[in-house]
Amino acid sequence: MAACCSGGCSSTKPPVDKTYRRILWIALVVNAGMFGIELFSGWAAGSVSLLADAVDFFGDAANYAVSLFVLGLAPIWRSRTALIKGLTMGGYGLFILGAAGWNLASGTVPEHVTMGKIGVLALLANLLVAALLFAYRNGDSNMRSVWLCTRNDAIGNVAVMLAAVGVLGTGSGWPDIVVACIMGLLGLSAARTVIKQARKEMKTAAAPVGAQPRTATIELKRR
């Protein structure tokens, strides 16, 4: 008991917040559903920003699933998982920028009505998840990555709606492409934040373990 009170047990079996687990399940279902809706709508409307948002929803659904899996594991494993998620977020950002370049080259003009309607629906879904996750926004790197994904989604949804208005007003696909680029850069920025925090946590968690054998070796040499 003394070891547990002093923090000795927390690294091997951290407490699991049941409320947070339920929130992750809700977020997983919402994001998986929105992925299907936006994927179909994005192809139908010819909108790269909607497709970008669909890929984002898919990535978030996978992130929530992974977060549920590692929730009861030691902090070092949660940090390692956050590092993988950060790299995935960075890959998503690069994919979006590439898709935007493809649409620019092809000269596609998306259907603005579909963009606007699906953008509103996606925003409502993300605001629900963001409200549920707000209390956990300053947790460890794993919790922070989940919060950042949801925050970026809500920003992206507003941007998609603005892009729809821009497409309507200009009759071109430029607003859609600009929004897709912004979403890609947001993904890269969030990835950098998560990776930086995850690596810091991994270094802190691993330092005591790695230091002990070295100290023991020095003592043996002295004797």
From TrEMBL:
<feature type="transmembrane region" description="Helical">
    <location>
        <begin position="57"/>
        <end position="77"/>
    </location>
</feature>
<feature type="transmembrane region" description="Helical">
    <location>
        <begin position="177"/>
        <end position="195"/>
    </location>
</feature>
<feature type="transmembrane region" description="Helical">
    <location>
        <begin position="154"/>
        <end position="171"/>
    </location>
</feature>
<feature type="domain" description="Cation efflux protein transmembrane">
    <location>
        <begin position="24"/>
        <end position="200"/>
    </location>
</feature>
<feature type="transmembrane region" description="Helical">
    <location>
        <begin position="23"/>
        <end position="45"/>
    </location>
</feature>
<feature type="transmembrane region" description="Helical">
    <location>
        <begin position="115"/>
        <end position="134"/>
    </location>
</feature>
<dbReference type="InterPro" id="IPR058533">
    <property type="entry name" value="Cation_efflux_TM"/>
</dbReference>
<dbReference type="GO" id="GO:0016020">
    <property type="term" value="C:membrane"/>
</dbReference>
<feature type="transmembrane region" description="Helical">
    <location>
        <begin position="89"/>
        <end position="109"/>
    </location>
</feature>
<keyword id="KW-0812">Transmembrane</keyword>
<dbReference type="GO" id="GO:0008324">
    <property type="term" value="F:monoatomic cation transmembrane transporter activity"/>
</dbReference>
<dbReference type="Pfam" id="PF01545">
    <property type="entry name" value="Cation_efflux"/>
</dbReference>
<keyword id="KW-1133">Transmembrane helix</keyword>
<protein>
    <submittedName>
        <fullName>Cation transporter</fullName>
    </submittedName>
</protein>
<dbReference type="InterPro" id="IPR027469">
    <property type="entry name" value="Cation_efflux_TMD_sf"/>
</dbReference>
<keyword id="KW-0472">Membrane</keyword>
